[in-house]
Specification:
Layout (H helix, E strand, L loop, with lengths): L6 E7 L2 E8 L4 E5 L7 H12 L3 E5 L11 H13 L14 H16 L4 E6 L5 H4 L6 E7 L9 H4 L6 H14 L3 E6 L7 H11 L3 E6 L28 H17 L1
Parallel strand pairs: 3-4, 3-5, 5-6, 6-7, 7-8
Antiparallel strand pairs: 1-2, 2-4
Length: about 260
């Protein structure tokens, strides 16, 4: 499989090999696809990151690269992720094993490109991965777009952060001692990202967490539907002044601030 304008390679860590696509020059930014896989919206966002002066890196973690999004495709991908050993969709206080591979990719990318460090943009079921990756010192700019893990089944999971207490402690120390900043994006009425979870990020990370919460409630002036979910891809509106466009521009600015 290939993506127009991107070069393809492989990255291996502890015997696990996955395809990686990249484009651009400058500090590395790992873009972790949302469900169902690396679709056109994710590729378009990666292109924007590359055009903004970064090396955009797309690891192929699930799905079929370039395949159009459909209900059936989403459902089949979700089923595979539910039974995968690499992903833990219901674990409230434990990160998914795949984050170890992603941390290794961040280390390798930083060693290759140098600079202050690398960024990571997680989306949907991979949104929280950007935070758990921040245990790795090379990760300097974590962005969580619509962080949907753990799946909000039950009250406790609604405010859980999908990383272990030990990992959270390390991230909090980085916030306090290194000035680490974390950016979080979501729509206010997105049922997949409970309000309790966003409040938990604010409570745990304090001044280290910047939240962009886009009004998707009834009667909002931009006509954003309550079911809106994907801030940087499917539900992105490229119009000046639109809150999703503002969120995109803030994301790119955040990456520049932390990495350039």
């Amino acid at each position: 499989m290939s993506i127009q304008g991107f070069t393809a390679s492989e990255f291996t860590h502890e015997g696990v090999t996955k395809a990686v696509y990249r484009r651009g020059k400058g500090p590395g930014v790992i873009i972790i696809t949302e469900v169902p896989g690396i679709h056109d919206g994710v590729i378009a966002f990666a292109n924007l990151v590359a055009e903004a002066g970064f090396t955009a890196v797309l690891p192929d973690l699930f799905g079929v690269t370039g395949k159009p999004v459909s209900g059936g495709y989403v459902a089949s991908t979700m089923f595979k992720l539910c039974v995968s050993k690499e992903f833990k969709l219901l674990a409230g206080h434990e990160s998914s094993p795949i984050t170890e591979w992603l941390r290794a990719l961040a280390r390798a990318l930083h060693a290759e490109l140098g600079g202050k460090g690398v960024g990571a943009v997680g989306m949907c079921l991979t949104g929280n991965f950007a935070l758990s990756m921040a245990v790795e010192p090379a990760l300097m700019a974590p962005v969580m777009s619509q962080p949907a893990l753990p799946l909000p089944v039950g009250k406790d999971r609604r405010e859980a952060l999908a990383l272990s207490p030990e990992e959270l402690s390390i991230v909090k120390k980085r916030v306090q001692n290194e000035g680490l900043k974390v950016l979080g994006l979501c729509f206010t009425h997105d049922a997949k990202v409970p309000r309790e979870r966003m409040e938990a990020f604010k409570r745990e990370l304090g001044s280290g967490f910047e939240a962009i919460e886009i009004d998707s409630g009834p009667g909002n002036k931009h006509g954003i539907k309550p079911s809106a979910h994907s801030v940087l891809t499917v539900d992105l509106v490229r119009e000046t002044g639109h809150p999703t466009e503002q969120a995109l521009q803030r994301t790119l600015a955040f990456l520049r601030e932390r990495l350039s």
